[in-house]
Design a protein that fits this description.
The protein is of the alpha/beta class and about 300 residues long. The protein contains 13 helices and 8 strands. The chain has an 8-stranded parallel beta barrel, surrounded by 5 helices.
Length: about 300
């Protein structure tokens, strides 16, 4: 069976300028995704500022998204932590709320061994009966979940896939060769996403989808259909965005882009700050190229 596929948004957590979660803006963003072809919502992942929400807020935002979407498309909850016990607690909360799956980033900062990573994910999957997606983003976590470890984890029945944000397409080929046949592969690297899908991936969990949901959904589905020419043509106007949305640490640029598009306030929590003024013109140019900027 296929668990998740297509364009999945790593949705931001909108905030007011004083840093409070802006649920009205979140509802508006969720409506945009429902109406523009997004295939799944990933709530309170790292793009959703999971690192700066406290435990109660984390659970509240997850529950809000699950309740608001109400089964119309899947909701995958970000439940990763560098504490295995906390990851289990968050994942259990997500299951109790009705999440369709859980996305768990590799434990960051404490740099576990490959065996530690294996045992971490095994413990979560065995404690909570929910589809679990591994998430490897070594550029942010200082730890790399290697293909051989992914292959071991793929044998655990409810570990169903991986979000790979290394941007290394050769990794996909390695993992596909090593993992069980029904294991799924989602890219977390917008710049290489089309090629990732064309080479056998089931979709992507995207930052760019926050601001270009319709365009990205069409491009991903063209790739899933095997139409490489159409997929690349649809993705071409977004290439500058794929790059410039990381001009400062994610989610600083994407939140500023959503603000510039009139969709959210400029709320973000320390230690993250609003996008530096010297980058505004660069990001505006990328938005214009993608035909996304509305004047206000």
């Amino acid at each position: 069976m296929s668990y998740f596929r297509g364009s999945m948004v790593a949705i931001v957590t909108p905030m007011t300028v004083d840093g409070a979660v802006d649920y009205a803006a979140l509802n508006h963003l969720l409506d945009l995704h429902l109406h523009n072809g997004t295939d799944a919502i990933v709530t309170v992942g790292t793009t959703g500022e999971s690192a700066t929400l406290n435990y109660d807020e984390h659970c509240a935002v997850m529950k809000h998204c699950i309740d608001y979407i109400a089964g119309r498309i899947p909701v995958i909850a970000g439940t990763g932590s560098n504490s295995t016990r906390e990851a289990i607690e968050l994942t259990q909360s997500a299951k109790d709320m009705g999440a369709d799956g859980a996305l768990l980033v590799t434990p960051y900062y404490n740099k576990p061994t490959q065996e530690g990573l294996y045992l971490h994910y095994k413990a979560v999957a065995e404690a909570v009966d929910i589809p679990v997606i591994l998430y490897n983003v070594p550029g942010r976590t200082a730890v790399d979940l290697l293909p051989e470890t992914v292959a071991r984890l793929s044998q655990i029945k409810n570990i169903v896939g991986i979000k790979d944000a290394t941007g290394k397409l050769e990794r996909l080929a390695q993992m596909r060769e090593l993992c069980v046949s029904d294991f799924e592969f989602y890219t977390g690297d917008d710049a290489t996403a089309i090629d990732f899908i064309l080479q056998g991936g089931q979709g992507g969990i995207s930052v760019t989808a926050n601001i270009a949901p319709a365009q990205l959904s069409k491009a991903y589905h063209a790739a899933l259909d095997g139409d490489a020419e159409l997929a690349h043509a649809l993705d071409a106007p977004l290439q500058d965005l794929h790059r410039d949305l990381f001009i400062e640490a994610n989610p600083i640029p994407v939140k500023w882009a959503l603000y510039r598009m009139g969709l959210i306030e400029q709320g973000i929590r320390l230690p993250l700050t609003v996008l530096s003024p010297q980058h505004h013109a660069t990001l505006e140019a990328a938005l214009n190229k993608a035909n996304l900027l509305v004047s206000h």
